[in-house]
Amino acid sequence: MAEEGEGFHETHMRMTTYVEKPLRERMEKLKERGEIKSYARLVNKALKQYLGDDE
Asked: What is the pLDDT of residue 22?
């Protein structure tokens, strides 16, 4: 989590990757329904869960 006073670019890094089409379609539906705010938040949450770094 970001420390007080740290900006977005100090705590995050841009990453480009490929996602299987059916997964991307499901992500789009989640976003359209307002179930996720952004793809980045979903990916970060999933990675934290997978890596055992849940908050």
From this structure: 98
pLDDT, one tens digit per residue, over 4-52 is 678 989 999 999 999 999 999 999 999 999 999 999 999 999 999 999 9
Residue 44 neighbours by CB distance under 10 Å: 14
Contacts of 37 (CB under 8 A, 6+ apart): 31
Which residue ranges make up each domain of the chain?
A: 20-55
Tokens 């059916």, located at residue: 22
Distance (Å, rounded) from C-alpha 53 to C-alpha 44?
10
Which residues are CB-contacts of 39 (< 8 A; sequence separation ≥ 6)? 27, 31
pTM: 0.76
